[in-house]
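Can't paste images in this forum, so I'm doing it all in text. The chain is below; anyone willing to post the predicted structure tokens underneath?
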Amino acid sequence: MEKPPDWRSENYAKAYENYDRTDFAQEFLRRNPEYRDQYAEAVDAAPLALSRLARHWGLVFRCGP
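Text version of the structure:
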């Protein structure tokens, strides 16, 4: 994954100008140390752990179109 630009740079706004709420939510989780730790634990656990993680963080995954 490409490193995001420094927020003080001129390219900062360009990097995020096409983001929607879903994109910003993903960025928040990707950078959140608590979520990352919980995700790492859940991946190695039973499938139910991933379901609990998703529910805790309010994640919803749509299947199909």
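Residues 20-57 form one domain. The CA atoms of residues 29 and 35 lie 6 Å apart.
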